[in-house]
Amino acid sequence: MARTVLPERQRSLLPSESPLALIDSTGVPVPDPVLEMPPDEVLLELHRRIVIGRRFDTQATALTRQGRLAVYPSSRGQEACEVGAALALREQDWLFPSYRDCVALVARGVDPVETLTLLQGGWHCGYDPHRHRVAPQCTPLATNALHAVGLAHAARLKDEDTVALVLLGDGATSEGDAHEALNFAGVWRAPVVFLVQNNGYAISVPVSKQNAAPSLAHKGIGYGVPSLLIDGNDPAAVHAALTDAVDVAASGGGPTLVEALTYRVEAHTNADDATRYRESDEVAAWLARDPLDRLETYLAARGLLDERRRAAVTEEAEAFAASVRERMNAEVETDPAELFAHVHARPTAALREQATLLAAEIAGGAA
Amino acid sequence: MAAALNRALADALDADERVLVFGEDVGPLGGVFRVTDGLAARFGERRVFDTPLAESGIVGTAIGMALNGMRPVVEMQFDAFAYPAFEQITSHLAKMRNRTRGAVELPVVVRIPYGGGIGGVEHHCDSSEAYYTHTPGLRVVTPGTPDDAYALLRDAVECPDPVIFLEPKRHYWTRGDVPLGRSSLGMDRALVRRPGRDVTLIAYGSMVSTALETAEAAAEEGWDVEVVDLRSLTPFDDATVTESVRRTGRAVVVHEASGFGGYGAEVAARLTERCFHHLHAPILRVTGFDVPYPPPMLEEHHLPSVDRVLDAVARLQWDDEVVRSGVGA
Ligand SMILES: Cc1ncc(C[n+]2csc(CCOP(=O)(O)OP(=O)(O)O)c2C)c(N)n1
Ligand SMILES: [Mg+2]
Question: Which among A235, B23, B250, B300 counts the fewest CB atoms within 10 Å?
C-alpha cells in the first residue's frame, strides 16, 4: 500500500476480505488498488533469491537425511514470505525469525552454515545477531514478537531509523506473548511489522482449531494495529505489502500486522509424519499455487526472464548448494570448554572449577 | 515407556468419564511422542482434543475444568515449553486448595516430557523439576521404568492434588520387562531397585538406569551398591531413603539438572540432617553442570554418565582420605 493511503488505513484497521495479490496463481498480473507492483529489478532479485532459497532448503533436507542435521523444519512453499520479508528490510532494520525461517536468513545474507549451526547441533546460534541485525532464530513460540517490539521502541527512543520485522506462525498467534506484543506495539506505536506466515498448520493442528476470527489478520484490530491479509504465495504482493509496512513504520506510522496465506509443503520437520493429519490432495492443490512457478510465468510473459537468465540463476543456486554441502560435510569442531564460556560475562569461580573437572575428565585423568 | 503411558491414559479414560486429555497435537497426531496415540479415535473429540497453541491457556482452562468437576490430564509438549504456564501452575494450580481452606480441589495432571539425551536442539532438553518441587502444593513424580510409568500415571490421575508428571523422554522408547499393572506401592514411595550394602545411589527418571548400570560396574570393582529410585520427588519418601543411607553410610545423588540449587541439594541436606552419625563420607552429587543445556553435539559432556557416577562412588572416603572436591562431577 502506498504511503498516500495511510490516513485511510488508519480509519479502518480491518484487513480485506480476500487476500491481496499482484500475481495470481497462474502467473497473470492482477491490479490491486492498494499494493503497487514492485519494480522489475526487485522482481528479478526476488526470483533469484527464491531459487537459491529453495535449493538451499532442499539441500538442508538432504543433509538431514544423511544425519548431518539434528532436525530441519523446511519452509518449502513459503519462499515468497521468507524472501519477501528479507528483501523488504533495509540494512539497518532487524529481522526476528523463528526456527522455520532459515531461507529468510540466507536471503538476508547470513552465512548458510552459520544459519544451520542451530539445527546441526554445534551451538544454539551460529551467527552474530548484531552483524546482520538478525535475532537468534526463536523456538519458544511468539516470544520473539516482544523482543521485536522492544528493539523497535528502543530505536525510537534513540532517534534511530530502524524497523523490526518479526516472523510468526499461525500457531504462534495463539500464545499470550503474541497478543502482548501486538498490544505493546499498538500502544507505543512502535516501528514494528508482524508477519504471520499462515501455512495452514501448527504441527498437526489446522488453523481452524487455532482461531475463530475471520482471519488471523483480524487479531490486530483489538490492539489498534492495522492489518493486511495477503496471498503469501505471491512474491510480489508479499514484498509490496512488507516494504510498505516497513515504510509506514519508519515514517512514524506505527506497527502493521500482515497475515500471509501460504502452505507448509513438507512435514513440520523431518521427524514429523504429515500423513497422520492431512490428505495428499490438499498438498497437491497448494503445489499448483507454487510461488516460484507463478513468478517465473509472470516474468517470462513480461520478457524479463529468458532461458539464459534462468540458467544463470539455477547455476548460482547449484553452486551455493554445493558449497553448503561441502562445508556441512566437514567434521564439526566443537570445544567442550565452550560449555562454560558464555554463561556469564566472565565465568564464575564455580564454573571455572567445573570446566577444570571436565577438561581433566576428557584428558583421561581422574576428575 | 510411551506405550505404557498410552495404556495408562486409555485405562484412566475408561475408568472415569471425568478424565479429559488435551494439549498441543495430542488429538489426531497422538502427540509428538505418540503418548496419546489412538486416544482421540477411541474416546472421541470431546474427551481427547487439541487446543489452541498456548500453554498458559491449557493449564488455566484445566484449572477451570477441574473447578467444574473434571479431571484434566494435560500435556506440555516439551519441558521448556511449559514455562508460559508457570504462572498458572505456581500461582493457581499449586495454591488453590490452600487459598480456599481446602474447599477447592484441583485434580489436574500436567504431563511434561523432560530431560535430554535425545540430541534435541535448545529448549527441548531442560530438566525443570526443581522449579516445581520448590512450589508447595504440587506433587512431582517421575517414572524410571515403563511399568512404573503406567502405575504412577494411573495414581496421578486419581490423586486429589495437582500432579506434575515428568516423563524422562529419553526413555520413551525403552521397553519394559514387567507386565503393566497398578502398584501396591502408591505414588509417594521410593523404591529400592537394587539392594546393596556399601553405598546408596539415589536417582529418579532418566538417571535410574544410569544408576543401575553404575551399580553393575561398581560390583566389578568390589562395591555393593544399592539403588533407590525416588519416583516421587514431592512428597519425599524420607523413610525409605533414610533407612537405606543409614544402613550403607554413603550416598550419591544423581540428576541431569544443574547442581546448584538443584533437587539433589535438598536430598543431600535432608539426609545429612537425618543420617549424620551414620555417614562415613559427605553425600556427593553427580549432576549436570551449571550451564544452560548444551547443543546436541556437546550434551554427552554435560549428562551424568556411568563413569562419572562411578568416580563419585570412588571418592566416598573409602580410605578415610579427604574428598578431593566439593563438586560432584
Ligand atoms: C511455547 C512453545 N510451545 C510449544 C512449542 C512446540 N512447537 C514447536 S513448533 C510448533 C507449532 C508451531 O506452529 P506455527 O506457529 O504455525 O509455526 P510453523 O511451525 O507452522 O511454522 C509447536 C507446537 C514451542 N516451540 N514453543
Ligand atoms: Mg503454521
Answer: B300
* Per-10-residue mean pLDDT, chain A, length 367: 47 84 97 93 98 98 97 98 98 98 98 98 98 98 98 98 98 98 98 98 98 97 95 98 96 96 98 95 97 98 97 98 97 94 96 97 74
Q: Which amino acid is at B292?
A: P
How many domains, chain A?
2
Structural domain including A357 reads 335-367
> What residue type is B105 in one-letter code?
E
For position A214, which CATH number holds?
Answer: 3.40.50.970
B291 touches chain A (CB under 8 A): yes
Residue B199's pLDDT is 98
Q: Are residues A201 and A284 in the same domain?
A: yes
A347 touches chain B (CB under 8 A): no
Q: Tell me the nearest-neighbour CA distance from A171 into chain B, angstroms.
A: 6
Same domain assignment for residues A209 and A296: yes
Q: Which pTM value belongs to this model?
A: 0.96
- Catalytic residue numbers of A read 264, 268, 277
With the most atoms of ligand 1 within 8 angstroms of its CB, the residue from A203, A207, A216, A219 to mutate is A203
Give the largest CA-CA distance in chain A. Answer: 74
**Cis peptide bond upstream of B235, omega within 30:** yes
pLDDT tens string B94-112? 999 999 999 999 999 999 9
Nearest CA to ligand 1 atom 21: A169
- A193 in B contact zone (CB under 8 Å): no
Do A256 and A345 belong together in one domain? no
Ligand 1 atom nearest residue A168's Cα? 15
DSSP secondary structure letter of residue A135: P
Task: Give the residue-averaged pLDDT of B160-170.
Answer: 98
Beta strands in chain A (DSSP E): 94-96, 164-169, 192-198, 201-202, 205-206, 227-231, 256-261
pLDDT at B327 over 50: no
Contacts of B297 in chain A (CB under 8 A): 120-122, 332, 334
Please give the full DSSP string across A141-192, using - where no structure is assigned: TTHHHHHHHHHHHHHHHTT----EEEEEETGGGGSHHHHHHHHHHHHHT-SE
